[in-house]
Known about the structure:
Blueprint: H1 3-14, H2 18-39, H3 43-59, H4 70-85, H5 89-99, H6 107-129, H7 133-144, H8 149-156, H9 160-184
Amino acid sequence: MSDDSEAELWLKFREGSEDAYASIYEKFAPVLFTYGYRLSPDEDLVKDCIQDLFVNLWLSRRKLSATDSIKFYLFRSLRREIFHKSNSQKQWQHGFTEAFSDTEPSFEDQWIKGEEEQGRSAALTKMFSHLSVRQREIIFFRFFEDMSFDEISRLMEITPRAAYKLVYRALDAIRDSLDLRSIKK
């Protein structure tokens, strides 16, 4: 979806279009759940936060400002919602740890993808386990959600320079992890 069509969709939603609201929900709810689950391992909490987010969006639609990136707006809103509803900072951090620590794929996944894919998955999980929570979060935004450094810095409430540093430190840690793996073989 282009920036213009997102801006138009957002405008229609703000003007009260139920179709635009439904389109936004259908397009972004699945990716919001994936992102939310990385922030908190509590599926019910994530679902509740997404539901609350969309209810609050509808109720305050006329007060909302224009945006050229609905996904960015929703990610930022969901992040705040989960953070505020989480019982503690520890639970917040635990979500990223859990999201990248599942090294045992299901039997069906093993059968379909084979041992080679399983090996790659385990290697990625191990690499991610060496990253800090913030580094995992920024890698998710940059490479899985294809966000710009400016968007990431606003979402994580850090400067763009800090976002660059955090990404490159995470990539250095991944590279170091890969170097250690090749030495051990």
